[in-house]
Amino acid sequence: MTVAPFSQDPHSLREAREKVLEVAIGREVRAHRRKQNITVAALSETTGLSVGMLSKIENGNTSPSLTTLQSLANALSVPITMFFRGFEEERTAIHTKAGEGVELEREGTRANHQYNLLGHLGANKSGVIVEPYMITLNENSDVFPTFQHDGIETIYMLEGEINYRHGDQVYPLRPGDTLFFDADAPHGPEVLVKLPARYLSIISYPQNT
């Protein structure tokens, strides 16, 4: 039996991972420097590192030694472990196949408004919860523009046509149209022009709400 050759170069994989680490460290160094309103020149003077070296570090183009990282940590008054935070942070992705979204009723949902939750991301570094929904309207759907909740909402029209109210304005939405708005104002489909209608609704709001 012939064994197929290993198709991935482990050295290449290690180099790629190291590059990701360099970029993560660089972003953290830049973020802490800017947060404290420290210029590259001032940081160079404090640490003894050249401006060019600092630029390479912040852009992820070099692997700084532990001695260099300790020097940067002292200059920025942060623990050295802070530079690895972006690299170690868990990244989450949710894959929802067609037809597998969780059907549910959101607070204030009207009759025959079908909501399919496509995923949920929370407890992330940004402090924002994001919920994407696929909303389907048919001939029996109610049209009361009384939805109101915290956060920001984005609507992307996929099928059909509706007139969507936000506050005292009404927007005609057709396939390909986008509406981005503050969800604290009363909003919702006011006139179902062409059915069935489907649109993607992405709602984001702070974790502490």
Automatic annotation (TrEMBL):
CDD domains from the UniProt entry: cupin_XRE_C, HTH_XRE
Protein keywords: DNA-binding
Domain HTH cro/C1-type, chain residue ranges per copy: 29-83
PANTHER family: HTH-TYPE TRANSCRIPTIONAL REGULATOR (PTHR46797), TRANSCRIPTIONAL REGULATOR (PTHR46797:SF2)
GO molecular function: DNA binding; DNA-binding transcription factor activity
The UniProt record lists the keyword DNA-binding: yes
Protein name: XRE family transcriptional regulator
Segments forming a coiled coil: none
InterPro entries to which the protein is assigned, alphabetical: Cro/C1-type_HTH, Cupin_2, Lambda_DNA-bd_dom_sf, RmlC-like_jellyroll, RmlC_Cupin_sf, TransReg_Diox_bact_type
Keyword match Glycoprotein: no
Cellular component terms (Gene Ontology): cytosol
